[in-house]
């Protein structure tokens, strides 16, 4: 963590970052995630950005994060809506609750209409770029492109309708992660 916070601070100085998604390492307990997330939430909020916890709305509320990010790609629409509504009930109307959906228009529209703050699509699915372009034309809920994004792809996604880019966490393992974030942020 001590090595990561300076990189995060430098990235904020280098780029306009709206949100930081704090994801737990696999098998991470709430207690361990709290220890990781607490200083990150504080650092992100100091920069007037949103700190979201990945998949744990109860813990997000407990830690005073700005909200939660839900990965609902593998659920049917009814299950996804129940999970979204559960998180919204826990976090309240003022919190950010964003949802990563399968690149399937109907489910994403249903969740957006339930007042999700953003809908995300994973670039690993082959049809995602087309769904993002369609979303940008017909929907007003912000769209986030998640995945392996280089500056060239970032520009294309922004032109086609992605409102935000969420690069892979591996960006922080780049030889110069701050420069990688800077180049990606220059996508417009």
Folded structure, characterized:
There is one protein chain. This protein is an alpha/beta fold. It contains 8 helices and 7 strands. The protein has a 7-stranded parallel β-sheet with strand order 1-2-3-4-5-6-7. Helix 2 links the parallel strand 1 (19-22) and strand 2 (50-54). The mean pLDDT is 93.
Count of DSSP helices?
8
Distance between the termini: 31 Å
Mean pLDDT: 93
Give the H and E element order: HEHEHEHEHEHEHEH
Biggest sheet, open or closed, and with what strands and sense? 7 strands, parallel
How large a portion of the residues is in β-strands, by DSSP E? 15-25%
User: Any low-confidence stretches, pLDDT <50, length ≥5?
Assistant: none
Quaternary organisation of the protein chains = single chain
The shape, in one word, is globular
Number of strands: 7
User: In percent, how helical is the residue content?
Assistant: 40-55%
Q: What integer value in Å does the Rg equal?
A: 16 Å
Question: Structural class of the helices, strands and pairings?
Answer: alpha/beta
Strand order of the largest sheet: 1-2-3-4-5-6-7
Give the SSE layout.
Elements: H1 4-14, E1 19-22, H2 30-46, E2 50-54, H3 57-62, E3 67-71, H4 77-91, E4 96-101, H5 105-113, E5 118-122, H6 128-138, E6 143-147, H7 151-160, E7 164-167, H8 177-185
Parallel strand pairs: 1-2, 2-3, 3-4, 4-5, 5-6, 6-7
Helix pairs in contact: 1-8, 4-5
Tags for this entry?
18% strand; 188 residues; 7 strands; 8 helices; alpha/beta
Quick structural overview:
Helices cover 47% and strands 18% of the residues. The chain has eight helices and seven strands, in the order H-E-H-E-H-E-H-E-H-E-H-E-H-E-H.
């Amino acid at each position: 963590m001590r090595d990561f916070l300076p990189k995060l601070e430098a990235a904020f100085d280098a780029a306009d970052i709206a949100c930081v998604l704090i994801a737990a390492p696999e098998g991470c307990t709430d207690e361990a995630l709290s220890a990781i997330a607490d200083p990150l939430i504080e650092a992100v909020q100091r920069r007037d950005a949103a700190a979201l916890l990945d998949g744990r709305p109860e813990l997000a509320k407990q830690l005073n994060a700005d909200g939660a990010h839900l990965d609902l790609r593998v659920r049917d629409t009814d299950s996804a809506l129940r999970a979204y509504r559960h998180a919204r009930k826990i976090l309240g109307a003022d919190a950010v609750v964003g949802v990563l959906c399968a690149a399937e228009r109907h489910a994403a529209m249903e969740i957006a209409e339930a007042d999700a703050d953003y809908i995300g699509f994973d670039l690993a699915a082959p049809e995602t770029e087309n769904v993002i372009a369609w979303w940008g034309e017909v929907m007003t809920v912000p769209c986030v492109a998640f995945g392996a994004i280089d500056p060239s792809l970032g520009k294309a996604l922004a032109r086609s309708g992605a409102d935000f880019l969420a690069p892979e966490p591996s960006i922080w393992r780049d030889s110069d992660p701050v420069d990688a974030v800077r180049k990606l942020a220059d996508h417009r």
